[in-house]
Amino acid sequence: MSDSESGKEDAEFDEFAAFQKDIDAAEKKVAGEIDPGARAMVVAVLVFALLLTFVLPHTGHARGFDVLVNGAIADQESVRVPSRIFVWLAMIFGVGFSMLALLTRRWVLSWIALAGSFVSSVIGMLAIWTRQTAGTGHPGPGIGLVIAWIAVILLTFHWARVVWSRTAVQLAAEQERREAAKRDQRSFLDDAFEDDEDRDK
């Protein structure tokens, strides 16, 4: 094999290696993104409904916004800690991270939205229970609190479906990349052995 042919093969190998790196980078980028499809519209509607609950009665005359900012009306209605925690979690994860995940399509943000919505669902149940057992003279859960709780439960369900489908695709892609890397390694070793045999001849 002449030096010119060897140099040409090295150049082709370098071009292929650079092309392979670009492909790997693109695969990693795609693996870190979500494609919610039709669920994106459902999640957007749920986020909008969740936002509306902040202007609806949370309990008595206190609206969700009053509970969020710890207003005087919330104190008058004896709003307890679980309700305050719930409205903050619903705003941060149900609205904030859900919108971020939809806009950026980042898989990690959808995971955070899922985890936060799940915790919000549990705290929301506790908030409703505390309003139902608030005692005589204190109002029970308002329509805003109930709708908000249902909305975060539905958000948890839909984000779980999105995350799970993305996880399955990622696992399949990683397995395919590992198998491709093994094939490339075998072919590279085979080529190296063939070159050694050609030189020996």
How far is the first residue's CA from the last residue's CA?
Answer: 12 Å
Low-confidence stretches: none
Strand content: under 5%
Oligomer: single chain
Q: Strand arrangement, largest sheet? A: 1-2
Number of β-strand runs: 2
How large, in whole angstroms, is the Cα Rg? 28 Å
Helix content: over 70%
Biased composition (Acidic residues): 191-201
Protein name: Transmembrane protein
Region (Disordered): 181-201
Keywords: Membrane, Transmembrane, Transmembrane helix
List the helices and strands and how they pair.
Layout: H1 3-31, H2 39-52, E1 57-59, E2 62-63, H3 64-68, H4 72-76, H5 81-104, H6 107-132, H7 143-200
Antiparallel strand pairs: 1-2
Helix pairs in contact: 2-5, 2-7, 5-6, 5-7, 6-7
Structural overview:
- The chain is mostly helical.
- It has one domain (37-200).
- It has helices spanning 3-31, 39-52, 64-68, 72-76, 81-104, 107-132, 143-200, and strands at 57-59, 62-63.
- It starts with a helix and ends with a helix.
- The model has no long low-confidence stretch (mean pLDDT 80).
Provide tags for this entry.
Transmembrane protein; 7 helices; 2 strands; mainly alpha; 201 residues; transmembrane; elongated; membrane; two-stranded antiparallel sheet
Quick take:
The protein has 201 residues and is an all-alpha fold. The protein has helices spanning 3-31, 39-52, 64-68, 72-76, 81-104, 107-132, 143-200; strands spanning 57-59, 62-63.
